[in-house]
């Protein structure tokens, strides 16, 4: 039982570390969705107008900005994870049994390839859950989208209407393009949002790996430069101190 508890505690540390690194990207997705909602319906509160030039650019920006932000954070996490992995390898190989006390080293913060893809997990799970809910209520939602404005929605179906508004407000970067397409008369299944969930996972995983390899290349380049500098230093002839006394310095051969 104690072994099971120890293993569960170790797994919990890994999951907690992934969760902490996923919070900021999640907040960025929500923030961009709120901004998208505010500006997309700033002058026109109707759904059925569908896409406009402004709404198209807002949808693109609300998706690109958080993805770029997530990629940068994943890149830094991969670089830091590689440094922690190097420290862990030193501890495991040079000191048998892990007797070296390295307070700065945390095994659950080490680089692992799967961790990068797990960093996008929270965003992916939220997208998949909303895709399933919206997809299962496609008919009712599309019926609401034909109404004139949000006030009409609130008076006819307040529960579903409120859920729609809340979902778009918090997760509009993924929902709004599908919603506007259906509002304009082009049928698009909301289940198609499920493939969209792959994007944050792929971005987080890819940049996490790139960050680790970039830090590895930087470290190897630094070690190579240090080795060359040491070799050049050793190749130089050493100066001998003869004390400056007459007759102690050998005469140069003519």
Overall domain count: 1
Separation, N- and C-terminal Cα atoms: 85 Å
The total count of helices amounts to 9
SS-based class: mainly alpha
> Mean of the pLDDT scores?
82
Proportion of residues in helical segments: over 70%
User: Uncertain regions: pLDDT < 50 for 5+ in a row?
Assistant: none
Main sheet specs? none
The fraction of residues assigned to DSSP E strands is: under 5%
Cα-atom Rg, whole angstroms?
29 Å
Order of helices and strands: HHHHHHHHH
How would you sum up the global shape? elongated
Task: Count all strands and give the number.
Answer: 0
Describe this structure in words.
- This protein has 9 helices and no strands.
- The protein is mostly helical.
- It has helices at 2-40, 53-94, 113-118, 121-136, 138-145, 150-156, 158-183, 193-196, 198-235.
- Helix 6 (150-156) packs across helix 7.
- It has one domain.
